[in-house]
Amino acid sequence: MAAETPTATPTPTPTPSAVYKPADASGPAQNVPVPVLPEVAKTETKEGLEAFTRYWYSALSYAYETGDAAVLESISDSACASCKKVKQEVTDWHTRGRWLEGGRITVDAVDSNFVMSQPSTYQAIAQVQQEAIAYHLSDGSVKGRVAALPTTPDIVVAAYVGQGWKAQTVEHMVK
What we know:
Blueprint: H1 46-66, H2 70-74, H3 81-93, E1 99-102, E2 105-111, E3 121-130, E4 133-136, E5 142-146, E6 149-161, E7 164-172
Antiparallel strand pairs: 1-4, 2-3, 3-6, 4-5, 6-7
Helix pairs in contact: 1-3
């Protein structure tokens, strides 16, 4: 009986991970990381509400960069007028080859007294800033611009429904 000669098993070559590229004058953002809901944001606690608030803004920022508002919509109450308005704006603009450059949102701070205002409904105050936005047409030209927003206090009213939070309204506290 002849001994079998071991055959070399090819070592898999790692595929390079897609690299994030923000939008610029040459085209829309690429490989934008999808926001991930932190475990604590699944709890009906002060920490859960604050983590949810940060997550909501990351979903909003993702929508600005990609035009994909599915995550934002899934965590926003269907009656949230401000949520619907921003969803409409970003999804409408990201059609027919158009894109937004900038608009990323940074949350500097979130705080809540975690006092129930209605059944399972609480408020959080978020200090947020948003980068300037350039509205690009499909040929790359700029249709319009919106200046960066300095740090602005927002009120987030959210309800803990079932197993998670839903934003009921998100509004700037200062106009």
